Amino acid sequence: MANVLLVCFDSLAYAPGLRLLSSLGNAGGHPTRLLFLIKESVTFQDRRLETADELAAFENLLDVLSIDVVGLSVMTHEYERAVEVFRRARVKGRHVVWGGIHAAIRPRECLPHADAVCLTEGEATWTAYLDALDSGSDRRLPNFLLPDEDADELRAAGRLRLIEDLDSLPLPDYDIRHSYYSNGQEILPMTWESYRRHNTWEGTY
């Protein structure tokens, strides 16, 4: 069993991909939580890094939840933030996996800051990767690039797997008990009110 924390750097608490990974991890016996490091109205020119208080709270959360694996979903304008979060996770001895658009298109830039980089749809083999990590078996699985590997060689070898049956995927994890968010100073459990405040789409819950 691996305890997992999935980190979203987006300006919204939407993250359908990470929520799918959370559902898969929890169903596969790997307790998974979501952390939303929300920076509103962030652009390529307006790159707001996490504060010292946020990073300290992140380190504390790793201990409180006994996290083993940190998964980062990264877009290009979030790269610097992800590197700093990686550094804090590494100080605490956690295993770090990068995914998202930036990891897929620039894996060589991400590998120095990761134990593995997901090159395509993580949902296809995420639970298998966690199983392998937990058991100490071979992590050279489809879609995952390890630090001593070359992305072009992995692609040429056909070690990528897409999801053929989308109906096989579970519903995204919207269990409020699995989510945390930063308010700029500390990390707190997500509530429906805080979720509504950090989402573009309003609704009745």
Task: Quickly describe the structure.
The protein has 205 residues and is an alpha/beta fold. It has helices at 16-27, 52-64, 79-91, 101-105, 107-110, 126-135, 151-156, 192-197, and strands spanning 4-8, 32-36, 69-73, 95-99, 116-118, 144-145, 179-182, 187-189.
Task: List key phrases describing it.
alpha/beta, 205 residues, 8 helices, 16% strand, 8-stranded mixed sheet
3D structure, described in words:
By secondary structure, the chain is an alpha/beta fold. Helices cover 34% and strands 16% of the residues. It has 8 helices and 8 strands. The protein has helices at 16-27, 52-64, 79-91, 101-105, 107-110, 126-135, 151-156, 192-197; strands at 4-8, 32-36, 69-73, 95-99, 116-118, 144-145, 179-182, 187-189. The longest helix has 13 residues, at 52-64. The chain is globular, with a radius of gyration of 16 Å.
Present the secondary structure layout.
Blueprint: E1 4-8, H1 16-27, E2 32-36, H2 52-64, E3 69-73, H3 79-91, E4 95-99, H4 101-105, H5 107-110, E5 116-118, H6 126-135, E6 144-145, H7 151-156, E7 179-182, E8 187-189, H8 192-197
Parallel strand pairs: 1-2, 1-3, 2-7, 3-4, 4-5
Antiparallel strand pairs: 5-6, 7-8
Strand order of the largest sheet: 6-5-4-3-1-2-7-8
Order of helices and strands: EHEHEHEHHEHEHEEH
Strand content: 15-25%
Using only CA atoms, what is the Rg? 16 Å
Q: What is the strand tally?
A: 8
Taking pLDDT < 50 over at least 5 consecutive residues as the criterion, the unreliable ranges are none
